[in-house]
Amino acid sequence: MNDMHDMTGLPEIDGARLWSDLMTMGAIGGTARGGSFRPALSGADAEARNLFAHWAREAGLALSVDRVGNMFARREGRDPSLPPLMIGSHLDTQMPGGKFDGVLGVLAGLAVVRALNAAGLETQRAIEIVNWTNEEGARFQPGLMGSAVFAGLLPLDEVLARTDRKGLSVRDELAATGYAGPVPAGGREVHKYLELHIEQGPELEKNGAVIGAVTNSSWGCSGFIEIRGENGHSQTAAMSRRRNALVGAAKLILAIEEIGAAQEPAGMVSATVVENWPNNRVNIPHLAKLSYVVVHETAEGRQAIIDRIEEAARRIAEDSHLDIETTTAHFRDRLDFSPDLLDLTVKTAEGRGLSVMTLPTLTAHDALSIHFVAPVAIVFVPCRDGISHSELEWCEPEHATAGARVLLDMALAAANEG
Amino acid sequence: MNDMHDMTGLPEIDGARLWSDLMTMGAIGGTARGGSFRPALSGADAEARNLFAHWAREAGLALSVDRVGNMFARREGRDPSLPPLMIGSHLDTQMPGGKFDGVLGVLAGLAVVRALNAAGLETQRAIEIVNWTNEEGARFQPGLMGSAVFAGLLPLDEVLARTDRKGLSVRDELAATGYAGPVPAGGREVHKYLELHIEQGPELEKNGAVIGAVTNSSWGCSGFIEIRGENGHSQTAAMSRRRNALVGAAKLILAIEEIGAAQEPAGMVSATVVENWPNNRVNIPHLAKLSYVVVHETAEGRQAIIDRIEEAARRIAEDSHLDIETTTAHFRDRLDFSPDLLDLTVKTAEGRGLSVMTLPTLTAHDALSIHFVAPVAIVFVPCRDGISHSELEWCEPEHATAGARVLLDMALAAANEG
């Protein structure tokens, strides 16, 4: 006898199967150090999608794919006319990323459905397990792409025209992978949306909690810096007279790191992207570009970070005789998630005897898009040392199972609402 | 009457034509700020080559192209069996570069031949004006490519397989531009080689000299640094515990700049190339690479720079919890150029009433390759503020003419040697 049913006959998560699925999925695009390399709409992402589709059919689910490649695996409810409960996240990863970020939320959804199937339980509403296209934004930008189009936050045509660094478009890569679906993206009602995710931070671990009920998102934005110097010969031009754009970029990278460290843990910022022209050894760089993400628990904190970076840019421009321009974009304001679902998360975890805490999320999830069309709950489980977007990302098997169990109970409650 | 002949009937450089040619050539791939963008074997480089071929034929020269795309425009001598005198440099530029670096040496060669033609003067030996392929190394590496293959320093097949950042090979781009010539590269005797070039440094200008007779090259090498940290999420990972490879790179860029500035003017070094992985805003960079060129007047100075960079790398690795590996390559030792030709340069300049000084070159020229198969002379003229590899690069018209006049007299002497 396996643990699929407990003695009372209630549906239960098969933790061993969920773990096996996570490891199998992680092997697609698997890296030597234990991570996964599955940028959106790559060959590896297509393989991951195919495997999800296979498992979904195996579980008796009806698969549909929309025009931006979002995959919906539907378990019909007693009343097919009611808006479905959705459970989901994403199967794409950073380059490289880990085995759990996103994947847990999708595969735990399958585990929920399998548990209902094994118990022979119907629900009033359909349950749809969703794999959103390109949550990570690693290959195509922006991230949260599929969920944003579904929620009407981004126009489909604009998104389809986005290209990766090789110039390949979302449109072409959807076609190449076979995931340019026929179904219109969004435009239909969603009853509620549940997303199980590793925390990606250290709070649950630090507090000895197994379940995190996420209250709200944080204040974020992206920043961009252009540093303009003057080109010249790196072996002959007098060093004291150079206007080296890369030297300005280096000073800014360090200044931004200091500004971030001073805000921790309420907020952070790191310059993580650099481009440099002409990037040839014999040339003094005449143009460098940096970009970064600002995140903070408060609007004032976000603004303070932006202000300090601009201050640093002015100081470095003057000291280094460079022209430096800073801009900001992609402002995300705090979202407060459904109090009812937050309450349900806490009560469900307590009912399962799991230690639970409430906390905000510093980073974005697909639930931030779906929040605009339906009540959402984000449920966190711990990840080791708060590490994610990393080959070292790790979630203990019992935490994955615990998260799926909370999801199962929440799904049963929400899918049986009239 | 133009200045093509002076009153004595001796051959003379047409300075106005030379200037006009420089401006015409500079307009090919011309940039808004007055520079040129003609990476080797680009469409613009092909146009520049076609124009050179046109002017060469117009001057009655016989054109040949070798297998690495080097172009030779030959004015036959009285004894065709004698090895030719060569005059040359290159028409490719940095991205972007200026109107004079390389171009002056090729077009001044044409001006010399036109002067001989106009005066009806024959020479004992043939004179060949050469455009060497890919001196700059901006698109394909290494630089001095064509001259190095000609001198037997690099195997042809290895060079033809080199690719640019888009993966296009030298072989394919030679074919695409029509400059995959039939003539074997090198393997023939060269009597002597003369290269007129802008100084690319400030010494002539500073000393009020119009002609520089170049004594020797400097001690150089390339350096490469790999900085390995750990990937992670830029919005959630504790800042104090990050191992951010780009932060290590930034510290090294500034350390290297300081090391370079401390050596000036005897030597220099700047980190000018950076690559960063995964270079996405939401990821802590786990790998960054830097590279740079070291140049110094002495072997000890070169070594001291290398040592100090390694020292800085060790210190930064420890402070920032990063793995940093430094390597060096492409060592160039000092070359002492032909004393006879040096003497001829000085005497010729003096004979023309031009102020002349001797000086080393910090940077490489095609003459450094040809030095291994024939005596070479490098003749410098001033460039404004020592600026080169820059859209602001500038050579006064009278200096271009003065250089070409010295080249003319030297060519007449060398091409009439038995």
Unreliable residue stretches of chain A: 1-8
Instruction: Please give the number of β-strands of chain A.
Output: 14
How much β-strand is present in the residues of chain A? 15-25%
Query: Based on CA inertia axes, which overall geometry of chain A fits?
Result: globular
Describe this structure in words.
Chains A, B: Zn(2+) 2 binds at residues 101, 136, 389. Chains A, B: Its cofactor is Zn(2+). Chains A, B: Belongs to the peptidase M20 family. Chains A, B: This is Hydantoinase/carbamoylase family amidase. The structure is a homodimer of 418-residue chains. Chain A is globular and about 80 Å long. Helix content of chain A is 35%, strand content 22%. Chain A folds into two domains: 15-217 and 334-415, Zn peptidases (Aminopeptidase); 219-332, Alpha-Beta Plaits, CATH 3.30.70. Chain A has 418 residues and is α/β, with parallel strands linked by helices. The first copy, chain A, has helices at 15-26, 43-58, 103-118, 145-150, 156-160, 170-177, 203-207, 245-263, 299-320, 339-351, 366-370, 397-415, and strands at residues 62-65, 71-75, 85-89, 127-131, 192-198, 211-217, 219-228, 232-233, 267-277, 283-284, 287-296, 323-332, 356-361, 376-381. The interface between A and B is large, with 69 and 70 residues.
